[in-house]
Amino acid sequence: MRMSIETVALIGKYQSPEVAETLVEVARLLQERDLKVRIEQGTASSTGLASAHAVSSYEEIGAQADLAVVVGGDGTMLNAARRLAGFDVPLVGINQGRLGFLTDVARQDARAALDAILAGKAEEESRFMLEVEVLRGGQRVFHTNALNDVVVNKGDLGRMIEFDVCIDDEFVYTQRSDGMIVSTPTGSTAYALSANGPILHPSVVGIALVPLCPHTLTARPVTLPDSCTIDIVLLAPHDASVHFDGQERFDARAGDRIRVARSANCIRLLHPPGYSYFAMLREKLHWSASPRHP
Questions:
Q1: Where are the beta strands (DSSP E) in 42-122?
Q2: Catalytic residues (predicted)?
Q3: Would you name the residues annotated as active-site residues?
Q4: Domain 7-122+272-284, CATH homologous superfamily name and number
């Protein structure tokens, strides 16, 4: 996949100076190829790179960059994806976090991977996002996007909450549980996986509903078409916390309606040649690993 790349933005893990060395190496590589380099302003302030490169906001990156290189973990990529949603800037991730489902390029392989991507040998995939709004008395009080998941949970309460679930305006059930995860295929290997949700291949255009500790054992995960609109209505007297990609949070009240649907925005992820989703799962989830004995 060949692209015309002239300007590359560098985005680092939030307030993490330890990514500075990798960012410097990547910036040097890009400059050697006569590319313009822009550093995201939060990254520049935490790494001290502001004096060496042009500093840009996410809005400026969205308007001016042809490629964004994200250095950090999956959380860094999720934040960058939400901030750049709607700008159609392709993203490539260099992992300096933990698992790295989204930041799949190992640091030691960064130079070779970027060389291949800049040479037009990248493998591109599109990941859809979720659009979320919270309605209170019929009025929108909150709105955002999420790439991984939307989580409605009991917050600090030491008991279950109760809510109605409707799909395309059809009542499905009333559930008593710790909450509900609404997950994209991208998020199916995150929190939803810990709650026994299904792993959805990125090419599956589905949304997973995954209950959190339901009081009814027959309440099982359900995969829905991405064309569905999902409403979760909190029943009195239960309030709840709503989390978006584990980073943003909204405190919802009894009676609030959390509405989730597929967003018009998609994220473009670039991978080096030879990328395999199943090889990535095999590595990150330790499939086929030999049992360990003490």
A1: 54-56, 67-72, 91-95, 105-106
A2: 74
A3: 74
A4: Probable inorganic polyphosphate/atp-NAD kinase; domain 1 (3.40.50.10330)
Residue where the block lists tokens 């989204």: 102
Whether the predicted pLDDT of 141 surpasses 70:
yes
| Feature table: binding site for NAD(+) | 74-75, 148-149, 159, 176, 178, 189-194, 247
Q: Which of these, 230, 126, 240, lies nearest to 168 by C-alpha position?
A: 230
Name residues whose C-beta falls within 8 Å of residue 127's C-beta, 6 or more positions apart in sequence.
Answer: 81, 147, 184, 185, 186, 202, 266, 267, 269
Reading the block at residue 187, the tokens are 């998020």
pTM of the model: 0.92
Distance CA 273, CA 123 (A): 6
Q: How is domain 129-264 classified at the CATH fold level?
A: Tumour Suppressor Smad4 (2.60.200)
Any bridge partners for residue 175, and if so which? 163
pLDDT at 2 over 70: no
Name residues whose C-beta falls within 8 Å of residue 45's C-beta, 6 or more positions apart in sequence. Answer: none
Distance CA 7, CA 61 (A): 9
